[in-house]
Design goal:
Chain lengths: ~270, ~100
């Protein structure tokens, strides 16, 4: 297997991999493949630089960062060592597994949201306790369909969720949504959204208070009613408003039209 | 690059040579960030994109020159289209630095 095949099989398996390429200096174009297990393919042209760059690439990979780094010809990286020496510029590109989206409730909105989430590169899991609704046939676009209650789902898999990941609770069933919210709050998920009208939301707040979800910090993490105010009605329009809110939450923007504001776009 | 793998695999299976162009850095405004990539095969077929369509055709010419050996693998920069320093640019006024190389690793 050549380096490209090793690299592409890691990307396809959603296992973390960094692609490291000399872009300036000796051996331009030399490429190395690094995973948490170490160097798994290729070389930058000398064992010293391979070892040092692999160590740094692993740090970048863990942080999910892509960057250009500078070294001396033998991997020197302290600024004093780089004075009056030829510099090797190296591009470190991290390929992290895709972010996760868990959607609770196997409803029509779920199919539309799963489709839009796939466009954005999410690994989508649909979860519902009702066997007749949570089927692969209804959600062929989802990566996984799980017939289970929220509590066991979070107990078994909740530790996998990080700040990049999103939880969307689309069921209106009190038996289902409050346990899902409780489970979601116990994870590190970056986005928790819960569907429902303002009336449903008000009633749900009462039921949440009954089970002890009252802290301002917890309530601030919950986006409900879910989505941005786009005025849409269809499942597809609603899905766009939900992912719009997820993006704005991640970037910390207020999602107003760019035409109505000043300042840098990116 | 993830989205290019299927096309690259198909081209390589057909015995075609392939160049890849990746954004390594961006200054100012730009539609795609570092890591955005496109692949070009020896026949000039393209997969993926590195901007909003502003520089893709110039990237294809560079990639073909690198595949044919006229140019070495190298960093290519595209900037303001109204600046004489750059023949092709981004309408949004940003500068992108791409590394283009044959896929021979």
């Amino acid at each position: 297997m050549n380096s490209y095949q090793t690299f592409s099989s890691h990307v396809r398996d959603n296992s973390p991999v960094a692609l490291v390429t000399v872009i300036e200096g000796p051996h331009v174009g030399a490429t190395m493949v690094v995973t948490p297990a170490g160097i798994v393919g290729g070389s930058l042209g000398n064992p010293d630089i391979d070892r040092i760059v692999a160590r740094d690439a692993l740090g970048e990979l863990e942080a999910g960062r892509t960057s250009v780094r500078h070294y001396g010809p033998h991997g020197e990286s302290t600024p004093e060592d780089l004075i009056d020496t030829e510099t090797v510029r190296i591009f470190v590109e991290s390929f992290s597994p895709p972010p996760l989206m868990w959607i609770f409730g196997a409803v029509d909105f779920t199919a539309a949201l799963a489709r839009v989430a796939k466009v954005l590169g999410y690994h989508v899991t649909v979860c519902d306790a009702r066997e007749v609704f949570a089927t692969r046939r209804r959600f062929p676009m989802a990566d996984e369909v799980k017939v289970t209650w929220p509590t066991p789902m979070f107990t078994e898999n909740g530790h996998r969720l990080s700040s990049r990941d999103a939880i969307c609770i689309l069921t209106h069933d009190p038996k289902f949504d409050v346990p899902a919210i409780q489970g979601a709050l116990a994870t590190s998920a970056g986005y928790i959204g819960v569907m429902g009208s303002r009336k449903t939301h008000a009633k749900r707040l009462e039921r949440m208070a009954e089970v002890g979800i009252t802290s301002a910090a917890d309530l601030a993490r919950i986006h409900s009613p879910i989505g941005l105010d786009l005025g849409g009605r269809t499942p597809e329009e609603t899905a766009i408003s939900i992912v719009g809110e997820i993006i704005a939450t991640r970037t910390g923007r207020n999602a107003s039209p760019l035409g109505a504001s000043d300042g840098a776009i990116h | 690059m993830r989205e290019l793998l299927t096309d690259i695999d198909r081209w390589q299976a057909d015995g075609k040579r392939v160049a890849i162009a990746r954004i390594i850095d961006i200054e100012g405004s730009g539609p795609r960030g570092a890591g955005a990539a496109m692949a070009v095969n020896q026949d000039g077929e393209v997969s993926g994109s590195v901007s909003g369509g502003c520089v893709e055709s110039a990237v294809v010419s560079e990639a073909l020159a690198i595949l044919s050996g006229e140019q070495p693998s190298r960093v290519v920069t595209f900037g303001y289209s109204d600046d004489e320093a750059f023949a092709v640019g981004l309408t949004c006024g940003g500068i992108i630095h791409l590394f283009i190389q044959p896929l021979e690793w």
